[in-house]
Amino acid sequence: MTINDMENEKTEKIKKEAKKKKVVKRKKKEDKMIENLIIVESPTKAKTITQFLGKEYSVESSYGHMRDLPKSELGVDVEKNYQPRYIIPKKAQKKANALKKKALLSKKIILATDEDREGEAIAWHLKEFFGIDEYDRIVFHEITPSAIETALKEPRKIDDKLVDAQQARRVLDRLVGYNLSPFLWKKIRRGLSAGRVQSVALRLIVEREEERRKFDAKEYWTIEANLSTKNGEKFVSDLSKINDKKLDKFDIKNEKMAEDIKKDILEADNKFKILSLTKKEAKKSPLPPFTTSSLQQEAGKKFGFSAKQTMRLAQMLYEGIKIDNKQTGLITYMRTDSQNLAEVAISSARKFIEEKLGKNFLPPKPNYYKSKSKMAQEAHEAIRPTQIQLSPDSIKSQLEPKLFKLYQLIWQRTIACQMNSAIFERTSVDIFGEGKKDNYLFKTNGNILKFPGFLSVYPTAFKDQELPLLNKDDELRVDNILPIQHFTQPPARFSEATLIKALEENGIGRPSTFAPTISVIQDRFYVEKDDDRRLYPTKLGEMVNNMLVNHFPEIVDINFTAKIEDDFDSIAKGNEKWQKIVGEFYIPFKKNLDKKYDDVKKLDVEEKTDEVCEKCGKPMKVKWSRFGKFLGCSGFPECKTIKKMVQNDLGIKCPTCKEGGVVRKRTKAKKRPFYGCSRWPDCDFVSWKKPTTETQDAD
Fold this sequence. Notes:
Blueprint: H1 3-30, E1 34-40, H2 43-50, E2 57-61, E3 76-77, E4 83-84, H3 93-104, E5 106-111, H4 117-130, E6 136-137, H5 145-153, H6 160-187, H7 196-214, E7 219-228, E8 234-242, E9 245-246, H8 255-268, E10 272-284, H9 292-303, H10 307-319, E11 321-323, E12 326-328, H11 343-356, H12 392-395, H13 401-416, E13 422-434, E14 439-451, E15 475-487, H14 496-505, H15 514-523, E16 527-529, E17 535-537, H16 539-551, H17 558-572, H18 578-599, E18 607-612, E19 619-625, E20 628-633, E21 642-643, E22 649-653, E23 661-666, E24 673-677, E25 686-687, H19 693-698
Parallel strand pairs: 1-2, 1-5, 5-6
Antiparallel strand pairs: 3-4, 7-8, 7-15, 8-9, 8-14, 10-13, 10-15, 11-12, 13-14, 16-17, 18-19, 19-20, 20-21, 22-23, 23-24, 24-25
Helix pairs in contact: 4-6, 6-17, 6-18, 7-15, 7-16, 9-14, 10-13, 10-15
């Protein structure tokens, strides 16, 4: 060994010793006692809260539930009073152990998860996992310095009643899902799932589709008059009576009857005359502040956001967005069914209205709202901005477009709910017209906005037209008479917004369940969206629903499911024991399930085809997956050959290659419908708009 080698070896040894000392020093630093450990659910929430607190606090995230029922087994001991068996999922074990170590090194542990049943349960699981009895439980509805400071001054203990209510829901849903899903696998195909709330949502969609199929459209006609005042101002009026007989909807049955009326009026060549005119002041009151449900509905209607997307954006606004280089919680907690606003928020809104809009927009006393929902019981404040002075326009450049839209919607609704009503002059006009044979009475209604009130901040659309200045006995010129053909319409398919409204009105689910329920029935391919983003059931969805309705009617019974939600509320209030509620449901359910396994024959839902397997020569069958239909070998599992099949063929040739057919597809990320060639990837034709036979002929 040379001198240089010896020197190099000595140098490396010194480096290793120094590295070891640094590691030991670092470990000692990490093992140092923590004054106050605050635990929340998400890292973003932790980052926002950290800004408000001093060095004596350490804020960590549990990343949601740290413990859960095992996925590989039922995880509930039905023989031991429905005792759940909770585990730390493998992917969470490293984080859980690190968090437990910090907890053991902390002088005080503060559990700061959300104040609803889910948040209470997360806090309880943390306490149980840490094995501690000494802790503080704090809650807040907004992530602001004042809210955190107040919460730290008012700690409490975990509310076991709320934990029991959440545990009852979790255990009951597991018992239903893990017992019922294998039954669907046996009777239909593997991979299907059935849940308590999702099955009711599916039933609503299927039954609406059945109503539409059975609907028998009826023809009827209306008559519309295009009229002008002597000053040339135009408006429209509808035929209401013929010879003092009020018209029913189906009195004008066909085109001939409608054209005869038109001819009779026009041939008389008489001017119409205003017979009577009634003016009445009307008020439109502001809408209440947002709950989870109403926010999901309004964001769906105004922006086309899915419920899942709305909640993801709202979560980001709640947990904190970087504003002026500072992590800022912009809205209050977004899972709530309360319409109540904190007094400080009302005061702040009223001050803003008076200063920016004027005293005439401000009511003498604050507007208060009470939730009409029978299930209002979660967080006790509506969704609102944490700081009214942060107007949407002032922070627009710092928000992503979708975040800005949702924040603006919440901000405007909060301001508007504390404003005066809009005032209209509602005008109702009766117009007389004389034909060659008959006399006619036309009616029209209109609104004149006299004072905008809350509409100046939160505009809404109105059905009635705005009328010109009219007076009794004014003569009017008939510009045209328009017969209009109509057909009665079937009930509309549910949008996500109207489905959420139906679930809420029927007491099905809770604010935290609406978005995941709608998401799962689409992910399972039970439901799809049409071109108008309305929900309709797939063939698979209808089969699953029919199976449940026929064999497990209580699972999909709306009233029964709503009663269970009421039972959960009773548990949360301490009026019922959760094991009793679970047992009352599970015992008859399991008895019925066991009977069905014995006496229901297996359904074969696999369609035979003329194609044969290219590997083994056996017939190919149409099979189902969450992504739709595909061809699979009938020799499965010995032969696992599968093949794509063309779905939703529109009967239109591809305008690009002229060989393939146009098929309807969906994007992977957002499930948006689009149209492409069945020969893809050999042909790359795609279009957002539905091609037509005219397009094909033009090419």
